[in-house]
Design a protein that fits this description.
It is built from 13 helices and 12 strands. It folds into 3 domains: 143 residues, Globin-like, CATH 1.10.490.10; 99 residues, Elongation Factor Tu (Ef-tu), domain 3 (Beta Barrel), CATH 2.40.30.10; 126 residues, Rossmann fold (3-Layer(aba) Sandwich). The longest helix has 31 residues. The chain has a 6-stranded antiparallel beta sheet, covered by helices on one side. The two termini are 33 Å apart. The chain is 43% helix and 18% strand. With 402 residues, the protein is α/β, with parallel strands linked by helices. Helix 2 crosses helix 6 and helix 5 crosses helix 7.
């Protein structure tokens, strides 16, 4: 337990963290990878360069400081991060390394303002926060290992089938090399793929949503090839998977993880996705199709038909299950799309159109896609008066804010 004095000191630093949080976490990662370059085998290098990881950590530290006297308030965030940590292979021995470099980064950025009293308070607070993460993650590791078909760390899977879904998205059907059972998963969850790419010094780990129904003898991931755009370099892992990995190759996978999952019940469900963000929602759709008492509306936004993945699969589900309907929104439809009447709306998803296709406003809403897309959907649902408890979303990569 932290003393009242320590809690008071931590809370007094909240305004400072609000201003300097990202600078502190940027300095933290610089120190961390200089002193422990082996950790680059775990962290996503692209998220580091884009600043997403630094922002996510700054937000987490800020939230912890705000609620240091009642960490139960941020338990959902701890569990969400814990899922990612378990999937990546973060272990208890990593936490002292993080703590040492975080405190040093605070000192580096704040200078004389980081008094001995503040640093000591943060050292104590970090110990409590780290213990909370370690405890939650220990349970997750145990559950992952002990469940039927489960395993710890990474396991070898063979690419049984590789299937092109669109101009930029490719599906990989993965079966265990050892021929044994695989762990069940909840629709919306993801696995981590650990890659050793020729010419790369470090391994790369990426998390991909499982895009098929649970209960199959394989896992399916559907990966968007991230090509270079302007100052943004091509995605090393997605390009390697799309262009170099072949059927019969072996990939290393962690067991399924993640908390972006369906709530039980009989309420109507609205699934909204943009681009490759349809991977978790398609998995959810498979599950919901079996629940005939739940009305389901599937809405997907794509650039055009050439970039629209898994369309036939979704339309087949709709044709077989009358309680499921689907709508397509194309921002840049081709002439072929227009001639075929292949979409329901041109442009972007907006509130007026949402109201016209969602049959029942009182529903559970799940959405995923690029951050600007999710910001627009979140804003539309907020303007419509949808309660926050009915709104669920998933970031690809470090958590951000909408």
């Amino acid at each position: 337990m932290l003393s009242e004095k320590t809690i008071g000191v931590i809370k007094s630093t909240v305004p400072v963290l609000e201003v300097h949080g990202t600078a502190i976490t940027k300095r933290f990662y610089e120190r961390l990878f200089t002193q422990h370059p082996e950790l680059l085998n775990i962290f996503n290098h692209a998220n580091q360069k884009q600043g997403r990881q630094q922002t996510a950590l700054a937000n987490a530290v800020y939230a912890a400081a705000q609620h240091i006297d009642n960490l139960a308030e941020i338990l959902p965030v701890v569990k969400q991060i814990g899922h990612k940590h378990r999937s990546l292979g973060i272990l208890p021995e990593h936490y002292p390394i993080v703590g040492e470099n975080l405190l040093a980064a605070i000192k580096d950025v704040l200078g004389d303002a980081a008094t001995e009293e503040i640093l000591q308070a943060w050292a104590e607070a970090y110990g409590v926060i780290a213990d909370a993460f370690i405890s939650v993650e220990a349970e997750m590791y145990e559950q992952s290992r002990e469940q039927q078909g489960g395993w710890s760390d990474f396991r070898e899977f063979i690419v049984e089938k590789k299937e092109r879904e669109s101009d930029v998205i490719t599906s990989f059907y993965l079966v265990p090399k050892d021929g044994r059972a695989i762990a069940a998963f909840k629709p919306g969850q993801y696995i981590s793929v650990k890659m050793e790419i020729p010419g790369e010094r470090f391994t790369h780990i990426r998390q991909y949503s499982l895009s098929d129904a649970p209960g199959k003898p394989y896992y399916r991931i559907s990966v968007k090839r991230e090509d270079a755009q302007g100052d943004k370099p091509a995605g090393k892992v997605s390009v390697y998977l799309s262009e170099s990995v072949k059927e019969g190759d072996v990939l290393l996978l962690s067991a399924p993880a993640g908390d972006f999952t369906l709530e039980e019940g009989q309420r109507p469900v609205v699934l909204i996705s943009g681009g490759v963000g349809l991977t978790p929602t398609v998995s959810m759709l498979h599950e919901l199709a079996k629940q005939e008492k739940r009305q389901v509306t599937f809405i997907h936004a794509a650039q055009n038909g050439k970039r629209h993945a898994l369309r036939q699969e979704v339309e087949r589900i709709c044709s077989e299950h009358p309680h499921v309907s689907a709508y397509w929104c194309y921002s840049q439809p081709t002439e072929q799309d227009r001639e075929a009447g292949a979409f329901d709306k041109e442009g972007y998803i907006d509130l007026e159109w949402l109201k016209s296709v969602v049959p029942v406003k009182e529903a559970s809403y799940y959405f995923c896609g690029p951050v600007p897309f999710m910001q627009a959907v979140k804003q539309a649902l907020s303007e419509w008066g949808i309660p926050s408890g009915d709104v669920h979303f998933e970031f690809f990569g470090p958590a951000g804010s909408l």
